[in-house]
């Protein structure tokens, strides 16, 4: 039921409900929810994420006064979508297990299912999604940094960044280092997380390790920190593990981010990049990226680069990535010297 209900919310345009007089998908879902009894509505809300509950709650206030025709349009939309859905996904797990056991035998089926069954989400992870940054920070600031890293790796990047900034300054580098080194989360680690967050011992069913953390996860958190804190952490991490720190920094700033530079800053960068490097880097750029870069150059210089790109034969992707990394390194160097302003780093200057 709740899966079918949330389908209207996926529609983004205001006219997404035919006959609904400008109702959007969220408003349609809100109307349908308000037509249900309190218990049924509460049951549906319990299956949604916090931000979905907030979004739907706001929509419910917006549709407090709707016409009979709008209500009928919403019911028509719901019934059409409900009819279009199949029941193949309901109760799938028991049937898949039965088929596997019949085909492979109980023991071999268990081995296969252990590899392919989606991991079970613990109550602790659900609890995290409803806590604010201060509450989470207070829970983990006196715990082992590995536990803190596990918590951060399961949060949305903006919330994780807020939590990280609330932790003691001397703890922050160790925590982000451990986030970057995380590769999987064991059942034992989830049990420990359960103990900390819900304050009771719980047996967490053994399930395949879930892939979390890594340099990409650490980089997402870092890019949500206040300007200056990210570079302080990178410098500290470099003393512990230079290679990992470089990997995180590379993930924080990618070639596509150069397209966020304004014409003046991008032009300054291009004047500091060798033509050979630029030609190779642009071999891996799309047409839109090339057009933006050429727009920051003189017509003659742009034509020269385009001719050289055309003359170059097929190139190894690794060469292109190396050239793009060299451009990024030049951009970082110019930004550190104050010559250019990188996008996202200028929020705190006057």
Oligomeric state of shown chains: single chain
Number of helices: 21
Shape: extended
Rg from C-alpha positions?
26 Å
Distance between the termini: 53 Å
Query: Any low-confidence stretches, pLDDT <50, length ≥5?
Result: 1-15, 200-209, 345-350
Which structural class best describes the helix and strand composition? mainly alpha
The major β-sheet equals: none
Number of strands: 0
| Mean pLDDT level | 76
Order of helices and strands: HHHHHHHHHHHHHHHHHHHHH
User: How much helix is in the residues?
Assistant: 55-70%
Report the β-strand fraction as a percent range: under 5%
3D architecture notes:
This protein is mainly α. Helices cover 63% and strands 0% of the residues. It has 21 helices and no strands. Helix 6 packs across helix 7 (106-116) and helix 15 (229-240) runs antiparallel to helix 16 (242-252). It is extended.
Please describe the topology of this protein.
Elements: H1 2-5, H2 25-34, H3 38-45, H4 50-62, H5 68-84, H6 92-104, H7 106-116, H8 123-128, H9 133-140, H10 145-153, H11 157-166, H12 172-181, H13 187-198, H14 215-222, H15 229-240, H16 242-252, H17 263-271, H18 275-283, H19 287-295, H20 299-311, H21 317-336
Helix pairs in contact: 2-4, 2-5, 6-7, 9-11, 10-12, 11-14, 12-14, 12-15, 14-16, 15-16, 18-20, 18-21
Structure at a glance:
This protein has 350 residues and is mainly α. 63% of the residues lie in helices and 0% in strands.
List key phrases describing it.
mainly alpha; 21 helices; extended; disordered C terminus
């Amino acid at each position: 039921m709740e899966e079918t209900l949330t389908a209207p919310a996926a529609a983004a345009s205001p006219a997404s409900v035919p006959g609904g007089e400008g109702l959007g998908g969220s408003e349609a879902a809100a109307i349908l929810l308000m037509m249900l009894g309190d218990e049924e509505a509460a049951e549906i809300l319990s299956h949604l994420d916090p931000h979905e509950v907030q979004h739907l709650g706001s929509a419910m206030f917006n549709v407090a006064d709707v016409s009979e025709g709008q209500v009928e349009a919403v019911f028509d939309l719901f019934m059409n979508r409900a009819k279009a859905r199949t029941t193949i996904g309901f109760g799938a797990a028991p049937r898949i297990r039965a088929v596997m056991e019949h085909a492979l035998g109980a023991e071999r089926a268990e081995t296969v299912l252990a590899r392919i069954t989606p991991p079970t989400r613990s109550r602790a992870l659900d609890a995290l999604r409803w806590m604010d940054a201060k509450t989470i920070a207070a829970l983990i600031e006196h715990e082992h940094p590995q536990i803190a890293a596990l918590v951060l790796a399961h949060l949305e990047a903006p919330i994780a960044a807020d939590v990280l900034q609330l932790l003691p300054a001397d703890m922050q580098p160790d925590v982000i280092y451990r986030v970057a080194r995380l590769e999987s989360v064991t059942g034992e680690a989830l049990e420990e997380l359960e103990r900390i967050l819900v304050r009771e011992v719980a047996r967490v069913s053994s399930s395949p390790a879930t892939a979390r953390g890594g340099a990409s996860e650490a980089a997402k958190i870092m890019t949500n920190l206040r300007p200056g804190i990210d570079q302080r952490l990178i410098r500290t991490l470099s003393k512990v593990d230079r290679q990992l720190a470089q990997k995180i920094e590379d993930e924080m700033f990618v070639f596509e981010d150069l397209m966020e530079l304004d014409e003046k800053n991008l032009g300054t960068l291009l004047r500091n990049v060798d033509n050979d490097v630029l030609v190779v880097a642009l071999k891996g750029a799309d047409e839109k990226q090339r057009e933006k870069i050429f727009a920051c150059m003189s017509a003659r210089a742009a034509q020269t680069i385009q001719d050289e790109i055309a003359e170059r034969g097929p190139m190894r992707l690794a060469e292109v990535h190396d050239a793009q990394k060299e451009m990024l390194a030049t951009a970082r160097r110019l930004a550190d010297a104050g010559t250019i302003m990188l996008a996202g780093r200028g929020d705190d200057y006057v």
